[in-house]
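For the sake of clarity, the format in which proteins appear in this thesis is described at this point. The record quoted next illustrates the convention:

___
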Amino acid sequence: MFEKLFTLVKSNAGTAVINNPLIPVKNHEAIINEASSSIIDVLKGNIETGRLKELVKYFQFAGIYNGNPLIGTTVNKFANRLNNYYGLDPQDAMDTAKALIPQVMQQLIKQSQNKIEGEFSLTHLLDLIIGNNNAAAKQLAVA
């Protein structure tokens, strides 16, 4: 699943990363990894801080992308990593994150709602992030 998320990020990284003159070619793969890691970290953080219901709601209802705290938190986390680890100034880092993360998150949600695309289903994502033994999380995901 994590490889598939990396591929999803990479397929959306054209303008934000690959064609961005501020990002050296040698950093492209690492930055795509940072974007993928930022998404996983924010999802995991929501679970660990007791916001599982909000996370489930986010994945269940289409059309709540804009202004969603989950996307905003992921954008900020990724922008901070770009600034701290890759030397992009804060505004360029934020612009890059805003150009990439929302569209990846939207596609992730759409794929999670697609019955054919089992690898991005919410239950599967929760299993990978918090482990297979959490029955309560599975019940919330199915609800």
